[in-house]
Amino acid sequence: MSTATEPEAFGARLRRAMDTRGPLCVGIDPHSSLLSAWGLSDDVAGLTAFTRTVVEALADRVAVLKPQSAFFERFGSRGVAVLEKAVAEARAAGALVLMDAKRGDIGSTMAAYAQTYLDKDSPLFSDALTVSPYLGFGSLRPALDAARVSGSGLFVLALTSNPEGAEVQRSTAADGRSLAQLMLDHMAAENSGATPLGSIGAVVGATLGEAGVDLGINGPLLAPGIGAQGATPADLPGVFGAAVGNVVPSVSRGVLRHGPDVYALRAAAERFSDEVRTAVEGAVGSTDGAR
Ligand SMILES: O=C(O)c1cc(=O)[nH]c(=O)n1[C@@H]1O[C@H](COP(=O)(O)O)[C@@H](O)[C@H]1O
Question: Where is the Orotidine 5'-phosphate decarboxylase domain positioned along the sequence (predicted)?
Answer without folding.
Answer: 23-268
